[in-house]
Each structure stands twice: as C-alpha cells, then as structure tokens.
Automatic annotation (TrEMBL):
InterPro entries: AA/rel_permease1 (IPR002293), AminoAcid_Transporter (IPR050598). GO terms for molecular function: L-amino acid transmembrane transporter activity. GO terms for cellular component: membrane. It comes from the Eukaryota. It is a multi-pass membrane protein. Coiled coil: none annotated. This is B(0,+)-type amino acid transporter 1-like isoform X3. Keywords: Membrane, Transmembrane, Transmembrane helix. Signal peptide: none annotated. PANTHER family: AMINO ACID TRANSPORTER, B(0,+)-TYPE AMINO ACID TRANSPORTER 1-LIKE PROTEIN. It is found in: Membrane. The chain crosses the membrane at residues 29-52, 72-90, 102-122, 134-155, 175-198, 227-252, 272-295, 301-320, 332-354, 360-379. Its main location: membrane.
C-alpha cells in the first residue's frame, strides 16, 4: 500500500500527514529525528562493538591484555570497522549488495557449524544444562521487560526490508516472502544455537561469558573452534553494514519530505549513493561507539524502538478506516496489530513504572526534544542562509546533486539513479 522507502517514516506520512496541518506530519518527524540522530547509529554501534568483541577475543585469550587495554582495543577495532562500513556504503550500492550476499552465506555456515556441534554433544548425552530449564532464575515485573528488550533486539531485522521498498523488485511479493520465510528460519536457527550452547555451558557461564560462541567453540569444536569468532565477526560486520544502509534511507525519505536538510537526500553523481546521509550516519555512530556499553545501548535503543512499533500499529489500525479505498496486496489479520500494540504498551510502561532507570527518562526527553525542532524548522519552515552555504559546500566536496523527480516506479532509487546536471 505504501510504495516509498523509509519504512515506518513513510507509513506515518501516509497515515497521518493529511489529517492535520500541524499534528499530521509530527509523528513521522519524531520518528525520523529519533532514528536518524540516535537509534540507528546506536544500533550500528551495538553491532560494531559485538564485532570488535569477537574479533579481539582470540587475541585476548592468547595474550595477557589488561581489561583497560582490551576495552581500548575494542573501541579502536570498532572505529576501524565503522570506517570500512562507511567507505563501502559511500562508494557503491552494488558493492554493498555483493558483500552482503557473501557475508550472509558465511553467517549461515557458522550458525550451522554451532548447531551441528551442539547436536553432536546432545548425541553424546550432554543435556544436563538443558534439563534444568529455568531453575535458579527469578521473574519480576521489572526484569521481564529487560529480558524482552535483549531478546527482541536479536529479531529486529524483520522490519529491515521495508526501508528499501523502492529498490526491491516486485516488492508486493518479495517483501512478504522475505518476512514469512526469514523470521521463522532465523527463529529456528537462534533456538537451535542456544540449545547447542547449553550442551557445554551452564546458564551462569553463558551470562558471564563476554563472547558465548567463542566459549562454545573452545569446548565443543576442538580444532574448528577458530571458525566461530571469525564467523560471528563476519555476521556482525554484515549486520552493521546493513543497519547503516537502512539509516541512510530514512534520511533520504525525511529529507525529500522537507523534514531534514535537503542535502541529505542528494545522490553522488559518480557513485550513485546517498553520500551525505552515509557520512552523517558514520559520524553519529562514531559518537555512540565511544559509549562502549552494549547493554546500556540496547536498553536505551529498543525502549524507543517499541514506542514507534506501537505507533505503527496505531497507523495501521487507522488506515483500516481512513484508507479503505486503497488497494492492498495483502491484509494482515486485525488481531496481529492489536497484539503488537498491546505488547508495545506493556514494554513501554512496565520499566518506567517498576524500575525507572535514567536512560528511559533521557529517551523520553530526547523524543520530546523533537517538538522544539519541528515547530520552527518543519512547520514554520524557517531557513537560515548558513544552510544554503552548507548545502553548496557538501555538493562541492562530495559531488552530489538532487535526485531527479520522476514518477516512473521502475527507476530504482540507487540502481539507475537520475540526477539533475
């Protein structure tokens, strides 16, 4: 029904923008503001820090690095990975796709190796940790959402394909198939991998291990153990590459709707990439990398993400009434958005009421700050001469131009870009 890139941003625009001159575009602006300025860069930083953890883990096992040295090494490796990711997305969209395909094959191969190793351990009778189940754990109203945050983070990729809908061939078929096939497949893979971990690691060991897959490989795979950190590093690098790619599409969608600086929708005339948006995301991710605390970043990020997932369900339910005339390729059963909306409200309210951590209050303040940017610069459309100078400087430095406005749906945004010359 919505055939524009930008994911939830485009959904909000389609659902709300025409309802009110002031309030209508506000949800999409809040989403773009929060995602462009924090959640997408923070998400990439989380994955890059995980990459760095697995990349240096073999080195730390073979050497005597102090915790301070190891922490510094993680940041430095993360910065190097970020520079590489930014360079790839800056230079070639086709190169990104080829690298992503190779990394996906490597990722699945590493996952299958862990699963096969775990199945062998089960065959040998090593199921003690599995039979104990949740023994020794505690369940409270304050800790349950935290568990959901970490768990749901791993499955957050289900929303990725809608970010690039304009660049997908036959999106009405391929997007649906990607979700229907990928989510059950990855759920099965993750469950089997965790069962494999439990064949050789106890629950306390899994919790305390900085790199669970490395510990599993050391104990279960023998001479094949070095493949595991390499496989996880490749997997996380590819994931971070994809996250930055998605974030630039939100930038593009918001900029062409006048909700971000127009220059961030400009396309490189030579490389046919969203060069300014890529550089912006690289810089913001660098700032998030300096935090270095993966758990804090996950809690802070996923808390805000589920606010927007809930808002997306509201948009869907509203469009069932306000957009009845619009042709739909497929129709989601009404019970699904209602359930997701309920879960998003629970995941939003429970941690605030039960255990209000500072990061949750900061997240809410950050969301509210969007209002003070929206009023003067989006609603009132105030403009400063410095913005024009900045735009011209970026155009000169990066060789970018506005994308030609073309209504032909067969022209891919980054495949056969057309720019004004």
């Amino acid at each position: 029904m919505v055939h524009k890139s930008g994911g939830q941003f485009s959904f909000y625009q389609f659902a709300f923008a025409d309802l009110h001159k002031f309030w209508g575009p506000l949800p999409s602006f809040i989403y773009s503001w929060v995602n462009i300025m924090y959640t997408r860069p923070a998400g990439a930083a989380i994955i890059i820090l995980t990459f760095a953890e697995y990349f240096i883990r073999p080195v730390s096992l073979w050497s005597s690095m102090t915790p301070e040295t190891e922490s510094t090494m993680k940041i430095l490796v993360g910065i190097l990975a970020l520079c590489t990711i930014t360079f790839i997305n800056y230079t070639s969209t086709k190169g990104f796709i080829k690298i992503q395909n190779v990394f996906t094959v490597c990722k699945i191969t590493a996952c299958l190796l862990v699963i096969v190793g775990g199945q062998y351990q089960l065959y040998m009778g090593n199921n003690k940790n599995i039979t104990t189940g949740f023994e020794g754990t505690t369940l409270t109203i304050s800790t349950l959402p935290m568990a959901f945050y970490s768990g749901l983070w791993a499955f957050d990729g289900w929303a990725s394909s809608i970010m690039v809908i304009e660049e997908i061939k036959k999106p009405q078929i391929n997007i649906l198939m990607s979700i229907v096939l990928a989510v059950p497949l990855m759920t099965a893979v993750y469950v089997l991998m965790n069962i494999s971990y439990l064949t050789v690691l106890s629950v306390p060991e899994m919790i305390s291990a900085p790199a669970v897959a490395v510990e599993f490989g050391t104990r279960a795979l023998g001479d094949f153990s070095p493949i595991i950190p390499l496989g996880v590093a490749i997997s996380t690098f590819g994931c971070a590459l994809c996250l930055q790619f998605q974030a630039t599409r939100i930038c593009f969608a918001a900029s062409r709707e006048g909700q971000m600086l127009e220059v961030f929708s400009y396309v490189s005339t030579k490389k046919l990439t969203l060069a300014p948006a890529v550089v912006l995301q690289g810089l913001l991710t660098f700032v998030c990398l300096l935090c270095g605390d993966i758990v804090t970043l996950i809690e802070f990020t996923i808390f805000m993400e589920w606010i927007f997932y809930g808002m997306t369900m509201v948009a869907l339910l509203m469009m069932r009434r306000t957009k009845r005339h619009v042709k739909r390729t497929f129709k989601v059963p009404i019970v699904i958005p209602i359930f997701v909306l309920f879960m998003s409200v629970v995941l939003f309210l429970t941690p605030i009421i039960a255990e209000p951590k500072p990061q949750f209050l900061i997240a809410l303040a950050f969301i509210l700050s969007a209002f003070f940017i929206y009023v003067p610069f989006v609603y009132q459309k105030k403009r400063f001469s410095a913005v024009d100078h900045f735009t011209k400087s970026i155009q000169t430095l990066m060789g970018v131009m506005p994308q030609e406005k073309d209504n032909d749906p067969d022209i891919e945004m980054c495949g056969e870009q057309q720019c004004r010359t």
